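User: What would this chain look like folded?
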Amino acid sequence: MTGDGTFDGTFDGLVLAGGRASRLGGTPKPGVVVAGATLLERALAATREARRTAVVGPDDGTSLPHAALRTREDPPFGGPVAGIDAGLRALEEHDDAAPLVLVLAVDVPRATGAVPRLRDALAGSPAADGAYLATGAGPQWLVGLYRRAPLRAALDAVRDAAGSVHGLPVRRLVARLTCVEVRDDAGLSADVDSWDDVTRLEKEGMP
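Assistant: Here's the prediction, encoded as structure tokens.
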């Protein structure tokens, strides 16, 4: 909320693109093509309204939009919490870091349709720290919009004695936040974990 009580929907994007993709035979997920566009291109399309976007993952030579930057968790393959930490650090190096952070796993090609729903949910819940999609299978924390200050506080609270968040499960981070679940009945959080998922999503149709 702003000082006059209105909702400030300005957000930065944070795309988690550094997994091992073992079920894809080692093919890096960001470059997997679904219906004519790579997963990274689709994730960046979902963040097109962001003030700035941090892509957390290896530099594969892919060019990024002007308002995007690349960073990496240290050590690599530290899991999504480590990725969120690295991405948030990169965003906060800029004085104009947005009050909200859109956190997206790179393997969710329909995430663009989730952004307005998440923003509306957070606008209607002024006491909430964030909003994320949820399906019958459970919460989809990595398709979520979070207030930056509480997210930063939660990250700092779950660090170990050495200051690391390497390998921590996302549920431990989100457990420290008060969030709104946004029901996903449209399959917006459907992810790509295998080549069969690519085929299925292409048959179902992409926006």
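The domain at 11-204 is CATH 3.90.550.10 (Spore Coat Polysaccharide Biosynthesis Protein SpsA; Chain A). If you want, I can go into more detail on any region.
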